[in-house]
Amino acid sequence: MYKSIKTTLPLILLFTFFFFGCNNKNTLPKEVWTTLPMAEWPEITLKNHVTFTDTSFNNLGNAFLIDTGMDTLGITCKHLFIVFEWYAGAENISLSPGFVSWDMYSKNEPTKKINIKGLINENKQEAIGQFNTLKVRDWLILDVEENISDIYPLKLRFSPVAPNEIVYEIGWSKDQQTESPSLIKHQCFKNFGSYYFMKTLSEETQFMGRSGSPVIDKNGYLVGISSGQEGNMAVIGSVRYLQEMMDKHDIKYKQ
User: Fold this and answer.
1) For residue 193, what are the domain limits?
2) Number of structural domains found in the chain
3) Is the dihedral of CA 201, 211, 120, 237 positive or negative?
4) Mean pLDDT of 67-82
5) What's the DSSP call for residue 250?
6) What is the 8-class DSSP label of residue 10?
7) Which residues partner with 229 through β-bridges?
């Protein structure tokens, strides 16, 4: 009997490794565009233009599209509502009263834009709060019109970023004038569940205005959203909250 166990155990371990290894979300196939120079990447990051009755916000934060495997959705950071509260009288995570229109547009070609039909995770019972409370829920999910602008929707990776894993933030800072967004390199320092602290490895990085930028892994899959900064740490929202909202609002997805 011992001989039988000794003979079959390596086969069991090999099967276990093969089965679970092949189903590990970190082994998703590399997106082809990530093998190209960044200048040849598809257009991913957008800017927000939001209009209320008495005011309009242009070049507001960053935004992007996601591919759920079933549909295309728009994403940006929820703490934009702090601005809406200050200047447009917003009282909760809702676009009323006074909301007129919202579109996400290409910084290089402003006429290339995607119109927003509605806010999926709108919640009139949800207080806006300040950054320290918003960082654990800093995702706005937007219902968009058909993507006819060749903006590339990112695919999702639901497994958490591992300690010391390198990830990349794609976006513009507030005063950045370059045509192409910057690619900022981060290293995961600590996982708080709904968000991460990241050590920024890129030099001369301006955090102001980068909120809403997508954060991808080395294979090009979305793993987070740029949320802010605390001390010398970048705050990156994890996809855990995004997944919770997709489940809550019955958004079908696959990976």
Assistant:
1) 156-240
2) 2
3) positive
4) 96
5) T
6) H
7) 234
Q: How far apart are CA 14 and CA 234, in angstroms?
A: 39
pLDDT band at 8 (very low <50, low <70, confident <90, very high): very low
Does the model's pTM come out above 0.70?
yes
Mind giving me the DSSP string for 156-187? B--SPPPTT-EEEEEE--TT---SSPEEEEEE
Q: Is 227 part of a structural domain of the chain?
A: yes
Do 98 and 193 have their domain in common? no
Q: What CATH number corresponds to the domain at position 86?
A: 2.40.10.10
Q: Are residues 182 and 232 in the same domain?
A: yes
- Identify the bridge partners of residue 64 per DSSP, sorted by sequence position: 75
Contact 185, 56 (CB under 8 A): no
Relative to beta strand 113-119, strand 99-105 is antiparallel
In a domain, 21, yes or no: no
Based on the domain organization, do 145 and 160 belong to the same domain?
A: no
- Structure-block tokens of residue 181: 């967004």
Residues 186 and 231 in one domain: yes
How many other CB atoms sit within 10 Å of the CB of residue 16? Answer: 10
Q: Percent of the chain scored above 90 by pLDDT?
A: 74
Contact 225, 214 (CB under 8 A): yes
Pairing of strands 99-105, 46-52: antiparallel
d(CA 253, CA 155): 10
Q: 65: which 2 tokens?
A: 């599209």
- 3-state SS class at 56: strand
Q: What is the share, in percent, of the chain residues with pLDDT greater than 70?
A: 88
Q: Fill in the DSSP letter of residue 64.
A: E
In 76-230, where does DSSP find H-type helix?
Answer: 80-88, 131-134
pLDDT in tens, 25-60: 457 899 999 999 999 999 999 999 999 999 999 999
Mean pLDDT, all residues of the chain: 88
